[in-house]
Recover the amino acids of this structure.
């Protein structure tokens, strides 16, 4: 395959390059940057120096897309809306967008969180690519909108509950590392502000809630169903750690395995045969997911069956961005879902 990564000087783009350079089906991988055209890729991503001496191209997204099988867009919010038409016009087999521009089909829901859409006419071309849930259903898609990092962790916690018919109003407390905020330093992402610190942000309205609500309402079959995402900045670089809590409808937590095992059964059944979801017997630790495309999940109900708690750990740049994008590409093109993604993580890290 001949692929291009547009916006490759950023963190999500760099992670895509790391994985695509080692993908068994990728023959050529071109990286573009507005600001770093002509410079070695390793200037922006020093950890890639050992595996690539490539340089960034400065061509426009349309030019870079020409003649490619797959084009990944890893651009700041709003840029994908601006360049998507020229990328489609270049005729790649598959466009994979990592930004939020094309994730939310419901215009009113999108506008509540993001304001007016700049390219709404292109929304129907995109398939929302929650790879661990949709799996082979992504086969044949021509454009993929990759879920956000918080949204991936949240939906992987919610999906088995919806599948079990549990119409809850769940609350999800989630903490992200600083790489979630992109490569440009900002006052709230600067090291002295983040290290040894923890704070809430986007209170009662984080943008990823839009795509979480879209899926939860669709799965539950109730257009006014509620789910709340409470987002926090944590003192680490990579990863998202999310805990979901919900009150269960009476009499629902019944399992042949005895009290406390119903929730684990819902999750094991929902993800049977899904290679990148691991259901654990104890809450996961963040560092065990870092560097991998795995979602580590623990689910348990209280002894009286009245409450459920689900914990999810993912790497925001792999499962929450580049890894899921490649997994979805593999599925869309009908190649091995795990190609290029089989590597384990690092511990300690
Ligand atoms: N970081 C995460 O954990 C994460 C997770 C999931 C999804 N995402 C999404 O992925 C996207 C990228 O995130 P990020 O964290 O990688 O952001 P980032 O570090 O700020 O990188 C964005 C990159 O886009 C490039 N760019 C912007 N316009 C361009 C254009 N017209 N042509 C070529 N390059 C262009 C910029 O590089 P130049 O100025 O050099 O061109 C910059 O390096 C965002 O939409 C984000 O929401 C991020």
């Amino acid at each position: 395959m001949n692929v291009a990564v547009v916006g490759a000087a950023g963190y999500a783009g760099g992670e895509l390059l790391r994985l695509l350079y080692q993908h068994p089906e990728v023959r050529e991988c071109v990286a573009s940057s507005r600001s770093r055209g002509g410079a070695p890729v390793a200037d922006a991503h020093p950890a890639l120096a050992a595996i690539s001496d490539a340089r960034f191209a400065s061509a426009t997204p349309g030019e870079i897309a020409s003649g490619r099988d797959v084009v990944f867009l890893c651009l700041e919010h709003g840029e994908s809306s601006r360049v998507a038409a020229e990328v489609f016009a270049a005729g790649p087999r598959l466009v994979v967008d990592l930004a939020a521009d094309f994730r939310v089909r419901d215009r009113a829901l999108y506008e509540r969180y993001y304001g007016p859409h700049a390219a709404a006419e292109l929304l129907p071309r995109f398939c929302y690519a929650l790879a661990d849930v949709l799996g082979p259903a992504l086969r044949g898609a021509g454009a993929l909108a990759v879920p956000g990092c918080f949204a991936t962790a949240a939906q992987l916690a919610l999906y088995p509950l919806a599948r079990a018919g549990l119409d809850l109003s769940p609350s999800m407390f989630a903490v992200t590392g600083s790489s979630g905020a992109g490569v440009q330093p900002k006052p709230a992402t600067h090291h002295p502000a983040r290290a040894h610190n923890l704070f809430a942000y986007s209170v009662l309205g984080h943008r990823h809630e839009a795509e979480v609500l879209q899926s939860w309402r669709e799965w539950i079959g109730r257009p006014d169903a509620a789910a709340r995402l409470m987002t926090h900045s944590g003192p680490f670089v990579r990863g998202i750690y999310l805990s979901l809590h919900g009150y269960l409808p009476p009499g629902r937590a019944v399992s042949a395995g005895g009290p406390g095992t119903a929730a684990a059964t819902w999750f094991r059944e929902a993800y049977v045969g899904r290679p990148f979801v691991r259901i654990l017997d104890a809450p996961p630790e963040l560092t065990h997911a870092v560097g991998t495309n795995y979602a580590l999940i623990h689910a348990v109900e209280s002894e009286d069956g009245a409450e459920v708690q689900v914990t999810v750990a993912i790497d925001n740049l792999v499962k929450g961005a580049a890894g899921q994008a490649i997994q979805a590409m593999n599925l869309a093109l009908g190649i091995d879902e795990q190609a290029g993604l089989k590597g384990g993580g690092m511990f300690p890290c």
Notes: The mean pLDDT is 96. The pocket of NAP is lined by residues 6-7, 9-13, 32-36, 61, 74-77, 79, 83, 98-100, 148-149, 179-180, 182-184, 316-317, 320-321 (CB under 6 Å).
